[in-house]
Amino acid sequence: MAEDGTHMALAWGTAPAPQRGPKRAFALEQVLDAALTIADADGLDAVTMPSVASALGLTAMSLYRYVGSKDALVLLLQDHAMGPPPDVIGPGLGWRPGLEAYAAASTAVYRKHPWMLDIPIVGVARTPNNLAWFDAGLGTLAKEALTPEERMAIVLEVSGHARFRASVERGYDDLARTTKRSSTKTATEEARVLREVVDEERLPHLSELLEAGALVSETFDGGRYALDRLLDGVEYHLAKPARTTEDG
Prior knowledge:
By secondary structure, the protein is mainly α. Helices cover 62% and strands 0% of the residues. The protein has two domains: 2-82, Homeodomain-like (Arc Repressor Mutant, subunit A), CATH 1.10.10.60; 91-180 and 218-239, Tetracycline Repressor, domain 2 (Orthogonal Bundle), CATH 1.10.357. The radius of gyration is 23 Å and the shape is flat.
């Protein structure tokens, strides 16, 4: 727990400066910039204390004066890559355009830094930029007739949608690079293989979907459709007559 507190102090800029040893040659942000360059080029696994130290011309041991562990480095790196939320996610847009902007901006971050998807979600994020994004999402709903719990659930669901969409896109992009085919050709090949193994009698609904070409449609944006239906549900909920205490 003490180590976790140290991580948070680094993230929030409240960690005390070391009283002993040589003066630090770099600011923490420069360390994170070096780690970000490595992660964007070679993935999260390539981000190690020795690799980041080497990029800065430091020894691995000296890097521990900036961040105390690999866990701390990854925690700070994720928040650094997330960055602050864009101004477009403002309450002035209205709740629905605001949440649409929130989802689009979140997905864009994952597209830019796909290695972030390799970091497991463990509890509630507590670092500055992550919380700023969450606060911005909540702000889009601040004037709506929703309970605090409802606002939180909606923003978490939109965040999850953005992450899932980026994860699916990344999977197809990775497969396309491996097979040296475009994402469209990769999806077409997947559909062909599935049609060969899907039995119409055992899997009638999936078979119908494949025959209709739904897996390779170039005109239907499934991610956008899913987000629209999610927000339709919120809109329907907001349009209902005021609920009584008995109704919940």
